[in-house]
Amino acid sequence: MGIFKVIEKVSCKESNGKIFKLLLRTVDNYLIEETIGYIHIGNIIKPLIKGSFHNYYHTFVCVSTQVGCPLQCKFCANQKISFVRNLSTSEIVEEVILAQNILGNLDKNSIKEREVKYGGVGEPLFNLTNVIKSIEIISRMLGNDTSFILSTSGHPISKLDDLIDILKTKKYYEVFLHVSLHASNNRIRKYLMNLEEINELFERIKLYIKLVRSPVILNYLIIRNINDDPKYANELSSLIITNGIQNHTIVKLSIPSFIGSIFSIPPPISRIMEFLDVLRSHDIRVFLFRSGGTSIAAGCGQLIAREQPQ
Ligand code: SF4
Fold first, then answer.
1. What was the pLDDT predicted at 262?
2. Cα distances (angstroms) measured from residue 219 to each of 222, 252, 269
C-alpha cells in the first residue's frame, strides 16, 4: 500500500514473468485493473568494467482513469459495464505507486525508459483535470526518464481543445498522443465506437501537431469484415494526406490478439498485408502491433472495471 491509501491491491496475475495484471479495489469498493510490465532492451557493455555486461529495461504501466467507461466501444471488454465515476488524481497516482512496488524488483540503474500510458479502463479526456494533475505528480516522482502516453478516442472534441491548450506551452514532462481511430469514416466509427466527427478530429490532430510540436500515433484496430477492406486504407491515407500530417503521424495497425466477439476477429494475414501495402503506397508510415498479456486478459481492450469483488 502506498502513502495515499486510496486503492488497494486485490490480486496480481503474471504472464511470462514480464507482464502483470493488477486487480485493484477503491475505498468505495469498485474494482479496476491495470497492466504493467517490462521489456528487456539490451545488454550493454559497461566500458569501465572489463567484460561486464549490464541489462537494460523499458518499463510500462497502463493505468485506468475511470470506473467503467461512458463510450462503450464494441470491441472493448467494458462495453457491457456501466460507467460509474472518474478516478481521482490520488487514485491514478496510486496505480503507479503500486506498479512500482512490483517493478521496483528491477535494479533501478537498469531502467532506461519508463512509460506511463493512460490506456486502461476509461476515456482520459472525460477526466482531463485529474489526468493532467497525476502526470505532474508522477513525473516529479519518477524523474525525467518517464514519458506519458495519452491514449484517447479524441472525444469529446472540446476536451481535446483543452488538452492542446494545456500542452502547447513547454512542459517539464513529455506527453505523446495516441488517437484511437479504428475507422476511416463516420459510418464505421459510429458503428464501432458510437462516435462521428472524424473531420473535426483530424482538424484537432493537425492543430495538436502544429501547436504541441509532437507526432501523433493513429491507432487502427483492423477487424475482419468490418474495417479491413483496402478501400478503407485508401480512405485513411486520403484523410492523412489532405490534412497534410503524413510526416507527423504513424498508423499503428493493431491486430486483434484474443477472440472475444465478432469485433475482435483478425483478418487473414494476406488481407492485413494488403491494407498495409495500400497505406505504404501513399507514403503513410505504418507499423503492425499485436498486444501482449492476452493470456491473462491484460491486453489492449481487455482491461475491465467491475462493481463488486468476485
Ligand atoms: S476502448 Fe477505451 S474508450 Fe472505448 S470503451 Fe474501452 S476504455 Fe472506453
1. 82
2. 9, 5, 18
Nearest CA to ligand 1 atom 3: 123
Q: What is the pLDDT of residue 47?
A: 46
> How many Cα atoms sit within 13 Å of 178 on the Cβ side?
21
Q: How many other β-carbons are positioned within 10 Å of the β-carbon of residue 28?
A: 9
Q: Which domains, and CATH codes, for the chain?
A: 7-296 (3.20.20.70)
Residues with CB under 6 A from ligand 1: 69, 71-73, 76, 78, 121-123, 153, 301
Distance 210 CA to ligand 1 centre (A): 27
pTM of the model: 0.90
Q: How confident is the model at residue 48 (pLDDT cuts 50, 70, 90)?
A: very low
Neighbouring residues of 149: CB distance < 8 A, sequence distance ≥ 6: 115, 116, 117, 118, 119, 175, 176, 177, 178
- What integer pLDDT is reported at residue 309 of this predicted model? 47
> How many whole angstroms separate alpha carbon 227 and alpha carbon 222?
6
Nearest-atom index, ligand 1, CA of 193: 4
Nearest CA to ligand 1 atom 1: 76
Report which protein residue has its CA nearest ligand 1's atom 6: 76
What is the CA(135)–ligand 1 centre distance, in A?
Answer: 20
Q: How high is the pLDDT of residue 49?
A: 44
